[in-house]
Amino acid sequence: MMYEKEKQELVTICHLLYERNLVAASDGNVSLRVSDTQILLTPSGRNKGLVQADEIVVIGLEGSVVDGAGKVSKEYPMHREIYRRRADIRAVVHTHPVYATAFAIAGKNLPENYLIESRMMLGRTALADYAAPGSLELVDAISPHIQACSAILLKNHGALTLGKNLEDAFNKMEVLESIAKTIIVSRIIGEPVVIPENEMAKMK
Q: Domain 4-200 sits in which CATH superfamily?
C-alpha cells in the first residue's frame, strides 16, 4: 500500500475529528500533501469515524487516481486549489462543525477580538460566499481567501482549516469550533465584551 504511514496518520485524524464531534457521519473531507504532485484524500461517502487506511485515495494534483479503494470526494478541486496556491500548506480539514457552521449559516464571520485564541491560533478568518459543494464555483468562492487565511467559513456549508501538517489543521478546526461555541454560549448570558485593540496587538 502506497504511503502506508501517512494514510494511517490521516485515518487517526479522521477518527479524532469524529470523536471530538467536529464531523458527523460522512460529512467533510481531509487531505494531506505527500509530494509536490500527489495528495491523500478521504473517500466519498465514508463515515470519518470508521474510515480505514486502505480506503484513502492517492490522487495527483492533475486529477489522476494513483491508489486507494475509495471513491474520490467531489470536494477534491477545493483541496487541489489550496495546495496549488499555498506551498506552505501540507494538510486541509473540511468539516461541518455545529457552532462554526452556525456562524456560516447566519452569514457571519468569527469575531477575532473576544478570545486570545482567535488571533494566536487561527489568525485572520474569512467567510466565503455560498457555492454548491464540489462545484468549481466553490473553488472560486474560497480563492480570494486562500493566501491570507488558514481558517475559512463556507456560507451555508461548513468550515475549512489549513495546516503545516495534519495535527496543525486539526488543532485549528478544534479551536475554531471551540471559539464559535464559546461566543454563542456567552450570548445566551449577555453581550460578549471585546478585548481592547491595544491588548489584541500584543498577541503576535
A: Class II aldolase/adducin N-terminal domain (3.40.225.10)
